[in-house]
Amino acid sequence: MIKSYDNSVFINCPFDENYKEIFYAIIFTVYRCGFVPRSSLEQDNALENRLSKIEKIIEECRFGIHDISRTEINANALPRFNMPFELGIFFGAKKFGDVRQRHKTALVLEYQKYLYQQYISDLNGIDTYAHGNDPAKVIKIIRDWLYASSGKKLIDGHLIITKDYKSFRDKLPEIAADTGLDINDLHFNDYCYIVEISLMPYMK
Prior knowledge:
Elements: E1 8-12, H1 20-32, E2 36-38, H2 50-59, E3 63-67, H3 82-96, E4 105-110, E5 129-130, H4 135-150, H5 158-178, H6 188-198
Parallel strand pairs: 1-2, 1-3, 3-4, 4-5
Helix pairs in contact: 1-4, 1-6, 2-3, 4-5
């Protein structure tokens, strides 16, 4: 699918194993709704630092999905701030960018509703959505958000998309094997490729 500013969705979320099922569901739903998921994982250029890469991708995306729920303390008794930081860049691009950047739209996800008020109170007044680590719930949230914020009307309901996703997940190991990929070690671009070829009828 050809990327454009108006169909690109920046995904700002954890990349660890515990989040993989939600990440996979987000990517599938974005494609299934007729949009293109973007992530800092899509590029691997040793000559470009991570922040520059993220800034470039954010600039190229009208839509942004930001999951700020991962605030657990790590082994060094420190939290992770990457997701709130990247959300701040997205907000800054909308506020201070050119005319095109001011059309940005963001969806803020949490594990539990309004938990963010305990660690990032500057977001008070923002309507977040809680997914409870449930792929079906995150599919509905993203589908409804893209339907409402994009103006695109030819998007199937969340029950159909959820059913399609469950069928896709059942077939994913076989599809990965057929393409010579390890189901337990799929790169972002490989997973996106598999989703794209599986959703060819919807990729318009």
